[in-house]
UniProtKB/TrEMBL annotation:
Pathway: Carbohydrate degradation; 2-deoxy-D-ribose 1-phosphate degradation; D-glyceraldehyde 3-phosphate and acetaldehyde from 2-deoxy-alpha-D-ribose 1-phosphate: step 2/2. SUPFAM superfamilies: Aldolase. This is Deoxyribose-phosphate aldolase. Its EC number is 4.1.2.4. GO terms for cellular component: cytoplasm.
Length: 309
C-alpha cells in the first residue's frame, strides 16, 4: 500500500471511507495461520534466548482496586531483579495514583513506568477528565501512558470522535509514549481489529495494545497477528514504526514464545526488541523464571523460590 495518508483524517467522511475500505480480514485464514505458528517448536538454545527476550519485554502489571504502595514497591524490586541473572523487565504498569511510588522505586534503573489512564478500563468519562487523568500521570513521572479507546463510539461508527480523543491524549502525553488499548474482546470482528489498529496509528499511537486484561477474550494469537500485520503495513505506507503490546491472559512461557514467533513471522525481527514489542502481564514472569531455571539446571526450583507475582 503506497497511498498518501496525509488527508485520511481531514474529514469524518474521508476517515470512514479509508477505514471501511481496508481489506477485510480472512477470518479462517487468520485463525489457521496463528494456530499453525503456535505449533512451531524451537531448539533448547533458542528457547533460553527466547525466555530472556520475553522477560525483557514484560510490562509487569498490577491493576487491582486493592493495589497498595507496598505491593507496587515489591513488584518494582522484582522488575529490577527478577531472579538469578535474569534480565530486568521493560516496564511496570500501574494505576495513575501509584505512579509516584513506582517512579521512586525504579529511579536510575532504566525500567519504564507505565500507567493506565483515560478512566481505565471502561473509558467512560468526558474527554476533559481523560486528558487530565493522562496529564496527572505524566506529571507524576510516567514514561508511558496506556489509554483505552471509546469502544461505544468506535462500534457505532464515530471514528472521528475516537481519532480526536487519541490526538488529545497524545498531546497530553508530551514526551511520554502512548499505548492505545483497542479492547479487542469488545470489537466483535477481526475487520474491526484491523480498523481500530489503523485508526489508533493514524491518530498518533506509539504502540497499539490488545486489551485491558479486564475483558475476555483478551490477547488471542489471531488478534495479535492482525495487529502485527497492521503495524507492518503502516510502516510500509508511512515509514513510521509502531509497537505492539498483547496484554491480558498471557500466563505461560509457551504463550510468550508463541507471541515471539508471531512477531518474527509477521512483522519481522525489527519488532523483536522491548522498544517495539511488549507483553502486558500480571502473572507471566514467574512461569518464565521457572522455565528458565528448568532449562539451566534440569529441574524446577518450585514456585516458592521466586517471589509471588
Ligand atoms: O495490561 C495488562 C493486563 O492488565 C494484564 O492482564 P493479566 O492480568 O491477564 O496478565
Amino acid at each position: 500500500m503506497t497511498t498518501s495518508l496525509a488527508d485520511v483524517a481531514s474529514s469524518d467522511a474521508a476517515l470512514r471511507a479509508f477505514l471501511q475500505g481496508l481489506p477485510g480480514v480472512d477470518r479462517v485464514g487468520a485463525d489457521q495461520r496463528a494456530a499453525m505458528l503456535g505449533t512451531r517448536s524451537i531448539k533448547t538454545t533458542a528457547k533460553a534466548q527466547a525466555i530472556d527476550l520475553a522477560i525483557s519485554m514484560v510490562d509487569l502489571t498490577t491493576l487491582e482496586g486493592a493495589d497498595t504502595a507496598g505491593k507496587v514497591r515489591a513488584m518494582c524490586a522484582k522488575a529490577v531483579r527478577p531472579g538469578g541473572d535474569a534480565p530486568s523487565v521493560a516496564a511496570v504498569c500501574v494505576y495513575p495514583d501509584l505512579v509516584p511510588v513506582a517512579v521512586e522505586a525504579l529511579r536510575g534503573t532504566g525500567i519504564k513506568v507505565a500507567s493506565v489512564a483515560t478512566a481505565f478500563p471502561s473509558g467512560r468519562t468526558s474527554l476533559e477528565v481523560k486528558v487530565s487523568d493522562t496529564a496527572l500521570a505524566v506529571s507524576a513521572g510516567a514514561d508511558e501512558i496506556d489509554m483505552v479507546i471509546d469502544r461505544g463510539a468506535f462500534l457505532s461508527g464515530q471514528y472521528m470522535k475516537v481519532y480526536e480523543e487519541i490526538v488529545a491524549v497524545k498531546a497530553a502525553c508530551g514526551a511520554a509514549h502512548l499505548k492505545v488499548i483497542l479492547e479487542t474482546g469488545e470489537l466483535s470482528t477481526y475487520d474491526n481489529v484491523r480498523r481500530a489498529s489503523w485508526l489508533a496509528m493514524l491518530a498518533g499511537a506509539d504502540f497499539i495494545k490488545t486489551s485491558t486484561g479486564k475483558v475476555s477474550p483478551a490477547a488471542t494469537p489471531p488478534v495479535t497477528l492482525i495487529m502485527l500485520e497492521a503495524v507492518r503495513d503502516f510502516r510500509d505506507a508511512t515509514g513510521r514504526q509502531i509497537g505492539v503490546k498483547p496484554a491480558g491472559g498471557i500466563r505461560t512461557t509457551k504463550d510468550a514464545i508463541k507471541n515471539l514467533v508471531l512477531v518474527n513471522e509477521t512483522a519481522g525481527d525489527d519488532w523483536l526488541t522491548p522498544d517495539w514489542f511488549r507483553l502486558g502481564a500480571s502473572s507471566l514472569l514467574n512461569d518464565l523464571l521457572m522455565q528458565r531455571q528448568k532449562l539451566a539446571t534440569g529441574r524446577y526450583a518450585g514456585p516458592d523460590y521466586f517471589t509471588l507475582d
